[in-house]
Design a protein that fits this description.
Elements: H1 22-29, H2 42-53, H3 55-70, H4 77-98, H5 104-112, H6 115-148, H7 154-173, H8 176-204, H9 227-238, H10 247-250, H11 258-287, H12 291-295, H13 302-311, H14 316-346, H15 354-357, H16 367-379, H17 390-418, H18 430-452, H19 465-468, H20 470-489, H21 505-511
């Protein structure tokens, strides 16, 4: 455990680069001791990001909803969102290159705009990750039922999702090495379920031509006859497909040469998943025998329908197994990221019950964060007790995640314009970085509003009102509770005295070679 009440240690001079102790020295320079086990290489860090972004989870979660609200034309929302997220990664790359710390948004925000903003940004980001876990677990539950040929009920889906969260917590408790093994298994499943199946469907089992992607097949009827409103709903849903790359940041303190490797890992994770998701979205749409049935809401699993139609009934169960493994790997990696974010807040003593949440077990896993994140993620599953909540939980999880993307991008832009932050890590984009930062703020602001907009078409007919308003309500509750805690308990005051100050930009710039690419 740490020797100081807040887990911070006196800052040393800028850490030397290279050598076996360089990462620990760099971490010490930023004010912390090495508590987690640092044994991830670049491939291990990419794996964490890839598993959380997950083409299996991304596509199979949103393909039905996207097709229902916008028709086959929805696939064009995917490259649009991918381009927007690339803007965010540019900002994250510069920040994590300079400050490669677990709990990135919290750590960056307090260095960019001060303790209060950093704490609130960290609070919002932490709950975003935990609510993302809620969504992944809920989306995985129907595949468990499909494996056994059972018909799910709303309460049954919630019960299975709780079981998934508990199982993932146990795996994470055994440490980063075991987690990495399970994540690698999930990525192997991704390769089969996404890359191989997608290519085969696209090359040999097309039922339609590419002009299909210019058609809505009447989906605009759900949006009052407006194709624009339908496509905006698809953009909101597609936002879920590209939100997990920041899991690479969560394991920064367990990654060797993190300041250089984590930015690279984020790019590899996002772009590789983006390519696979777009490939498979097109392949499934072209191979589906009746896309108009999906638009009508009569096929709730168009991916499996396309696969079984192409390969035959024998492929049903094996395909379900492969997809379920991918979902479980995503849930494990996402929960691990959430626990490490809580650990980062709790070791500074600025999260409720920090003394318990900051605990690390003998396997150097953040066990306190794992228990806390599981409890919070599980409580959000109450959204699905009264009706199927797939669309609502996707909107809920997406909104909670894009808000911290916006806050981080905004903080970076304000600090740049003030001149109080000059990127001084290995990634320095110069004037180009400012332009990209402005675009990242514009993109994330648009998507926060777009996702939070209450849409009845993302909830099943007759769903309770709180499912329709899930994104806005969830965002308001997280922000509101954070502001109340900030005013009442003033956790940011603990960061005013003895907090490690960032090194002067000129000093770090002299110590680190610059690059403008990952």
């Amino acid at each position: 455990m740490n020797d100081t009440p807040t887990g911070r240690m006196p800052a040393d001079p800028v850490a030397p680069q290279g050598g076996p102790d360089a990462d620990a020295a760099r971490l010490r320079d930023l004010g912390y001791r090495q508590e987690l086990r640092r044994n991830l290489g670049i491939l291990g860090n990419i794996s964490m990001g890839f598993a959380v972004v997950s083409p299996v989870v991304a596509l199979y979660a949103v393909s039905m909803v996207g097709t229902t609200v916008a028709g086959p034309v929805w696939v064009w929302a995917l490259p649009l969102v991918l381009a927007g997220q690339c803007l965010v990664v540019n900002v994250y790359a510069e920040l994590t290159s300079q400050w490669p710390l677990a709990g990135g948004p919290y750590q960056w925000g307090r260095r960019l705009l001060g303790p209060a903003f950093g704490w609130l940004g960290g609070w919002v980001w932490q709950f975003a990750v935990m609510f993302g876990n809620t969504t992944v677990a809920y989306l995985a539950a129907p595949w468990v039922y499909a494996l056994f040929g059972a018909t799910p009920t709303p309460a049954g889906l919630v019960a299975v999702a709780v079981g998934i969260l508990l199982a993932c917590m146990l795996v994470n408790a055994y440490g980063i090495s075991i987690l990495r093994w399970f994540v690698s298994l999930g990525i192997a499943a991704e390769a089969v379920a996404s890359v191989l199946v997608g290519l085969v469907l696209l090359l040999f089992f097309r039922e339609h031509g590419f002009p299909l992607f210019t058609e809505t097949l009447g989906a605009e009827a759900l949006s009052g006859g407006s194709t624009v409103l339908g496509f905006l709903a698809a953009v909101a849903v597609a936002g879920w497909a590209f939100i997990g790359f920041d899991a690479c940041v969560s394991t920064a303190e367990e990654t060797k040469d993190a300041g250089r490797q984590v930015p690279r890992a984020m790019w590899w994770a996002l772009l590789s998943v983006g390519a696979v998701v777009i490939l498979n979205a097109m392949a499934v749409a072209l191979a589906h025998p009746q896309p108009e049935v999906v638009v009508a809401g009569q096929d709730i699993d168009p991916v499996t329908t396309a696969v079984v139609h192409a390969f035959g009934d024998w492929s049903d169960k094996p395909f379900v197994v492969v997809v379920l493994i991918g979902f479980l790997a995503c849930a494990m990696a996402s929960q691990g990221g959430a626990a490490r974010g809580l650990f980062s807040l709790a070791r500074d003593g600025v999260f409720p019950f920090s003394g318990q949440v900051r605990k690390v077990n003998r396997r150097k896993a953040p066990i306190g964060g794992l228990v806390a994140s599981t409890l919070i993620s599980g409580s959000a599953l109450a959204l699905g007790l009264n009706a199927t909540a797939i669309g609502s939980l996707i909107a809920f999880g997406t909104a909670a995640t894009y808000l911290p993307f916006f806050l981080v991008s905004l903080a970076a832009l304000i600090a740049r314009l003030r001149g109080s932050w000059v990127p001084s890590g290995r990634i320095r984009l110069g004037r180009k970085g400012t332009v990209l930062n402005v675009l990242a703020v514009a993109w994330t602001a648009f998507e926060v509003v777009n996702v939070c907009w209450p849409r009845a078409i993302l909830a099943p007919p007759g769903a309770p009102w709180y499912q329709v308003w899930a994104a806005l309500l969830g965002t308001a509750v997280v922000l509101g509770s954070g502001l109340v805690y900030l005013v009442a308990r003033r956790p940011h005051d603990k960061l005013r005295e003895g907090a490690p100050a960032p090194a002067a930009p000129a000093a770090e710039a002299a110590a680190l070679p610059a690059t403008d690419h990952p």
